[in-house]
Amino acid sequence: MSIKGKAFIAGIYEHPTRKAEGIPIAQLHAEVAKGALEDAGLGLRDVDAYYCAGDAPGLGGLSMADYMGLDVRHSDTTETGGSSYILHVNHAAAAIAAGKCKVALITLAGKPRTGGAPPGRPPMAVQPPDLPFEAPFKPTVLNIYAMVARRHMHDHGTTPEQLAWIKVAASHHAQHNPHAMLRDVVTVEDVVNSPVVADPLHRLDCCVVSDGGGAVVVVAPEIAAQLKRPKVSVMGAGEAIKHMAGGQVDLSYSAGQWSAAAAFAEAGIKPADIKYASLYDSFTITVLMQLEDIGFCARGQGGRFVADGGLISGVGKLPFNTDGGGLCNNHPGNRGGMTKILEAVRQLRGEAHAAVQVKNCDLALAHGTGGYLGTRHGSGTLIMERM
Amino acid sequence: MNDKKKDAISADVALEPYWEAARAGRLLLKKCTDCGKAHYYPRPLCPFCMSANTEWLQASGHGSIYSWSVERRGTPPYAIAFVSLPEGPTLLTNIVDCDLDALAIGQKVQLAFETRDELPVPVFRPA
Fold first, then answer.
1. Inter-chain contact B82–A127, Cβ cutoff 8 Å?
2. Among the listed residues A1, A4, A9, A48, the one whose alpha carbon sits nearest the alpha carbon of residue A346
3. Which residues in chain A are contacts of B94 at CB distance < 8 A?
């Protein structure tokens, strides 16, 4: 069974806050849910399925369904870190195609800036089995991603300046987003002259830390037909997990190469058909790896692909993250998968900022890498089409 | 180390030989007698074929750096690395007693042990 054309993204919402002082996480979830349902033209009573990840408080789906007053007949709390929400769309579309539900609500909210959860970590009631074999060496999100960048530089001659172009492109887009945390356009020199935080990554190779959230409403075709918003169809989706493989560590690719291959096969298109891509940008290296994994360029060519504005809308080959992305706009709850979907849908609807809107944007991709690129992560790829 | 972490370790009887060897300065990997592959971190069931026939394999102590980074914000800064062992597995570890500005992929390193939060853990120093 394929999900191609069997589910639509009917509603989206991004919380405008970047600093949610005094607002609990449950309330943020509810506010983005309300926003996405209103955007779709639907109401609370229309929802029959709910999806959330480890950022949801308490018992996740149970606690949030209780708080929001949802009547739920299908639920999913798949947790792959920041990419979770892309996998949720895949699961929601599959459930809709199977007739299990008709209106699926997916929410994300988090507040690493003002407290509420430790940055980047889902609550872990049971410790992971790798704990005594990794934690003593003080791995951080930063140094684990940095080792992937180091390896890429060694294998392919990728330079810090090439990585910097990814931040530069994001900043060119963020200048047009009034909600973005970093709106100043930066240069390659700004990035490579910022302090090294974990070799070879600089401070400006990193995403922002922000509070906030977002939500998506996925609906059955017969529901979408009744709604007024532009129709965005789910054409294909894929997901995959990559890990340490019993010690056969290979940092030269991510699970994205598997998730993307599955998504393109389902959609029946190829990377060159994509007009706009939302790519997970926890760090500049994350984007570079994904470009190669998805097939936007050959393995090892990512540095050349992004240089000289390759990702800037209206300038380069592949406009990416036109909201400014995690690198400049926001990274709510240290989980960037949701905002990747939101900007891709805006592009397909023609509702991105005029300065960054891609012309005739009929096919878009949203891709996420959740967890730790160098140890264990989950990738999700979503391909959407404006009907 | 917090109590929860300690409990999790002491409650894992399958790892008792590992920690005993580590306290004596020896690094144990696991090898599957069915598929023949070595893995790390050690598990009773082989992650390549799920066989229960796994046995301990002592690492030679030699290794080479597969990738590395220096956490410059650490107090003090420290080197984290993936080190590849001739026995097969690559493991996450620290490079110690080294010049943080002179590390390189492919560099030969030698096993050492350090105690972290009462736990003997395998680290490496330049060979």
1. no
2. A9
3. 137-138
